What we know:
This protein has 2 helices and 12 strands. By secondary structure, it is of the alpha+beta class. The chain has one domain (28-38, 50-191): Immunoglobulin-like, CATH 2.60.40.1240. The longest helix is centred in the N-terminal third of the chain and has 23 residues, at 2-24. The N and C termini lie far apart (61 Å).
Amino acid sequence: MRKIGVFGLMLAAALALGCGAGAADQESATTAGGVTSSTGTSDDTDGKDKDGGEDDTDKAKTAKIGDPVRDGRFEFTVKSVKCGVRKVGSDLLGATAQGQYCLITVRVKNIGKKPQSFADSNQKAYAADGTEYSSDSEAGIYANKDAETFFKEINPGNAITGVLVFDIPKKARLARLELHDSLFSGGVTVQLD
Length: 193
């Protein structure tokens, strides 16, 4: 019985440390253009800064295509957006959209001091009405010949460029992209229209 109790405590401690580790790296991220993402909590609950002025985090600037934005250890730059694509890949191997594919070319640079894995499944796209779309990892493999955005570890200072693929309804239109360095990060938003 004693071995099971000690093992249970060790397992619970490992889980608690693992859950807290992601939050420690995600206190705040800022872009060169002033876009901020924060997953930390704040003692400031009235929207005012220390000097009584408006808190800038409530009025973060909106990033656009071509603007570098930061979340955690990653700096993202959306290079282009192409929607209305019916199929990705070759004639022999490929994927066909249920509706239409939106192909979003993104550069991801590790600005941290440790390697960080980039996963396309952590990225979200939204329509103007707030409808959320997840990336299509299978189509992403075919759209990226070297599968750079599927699940790739990026060392500090290195960058990759790849295509995120979203399968959305034929008449839908993407308004914004939410980019994350990890599953639990706060994320940063890039306007697509």
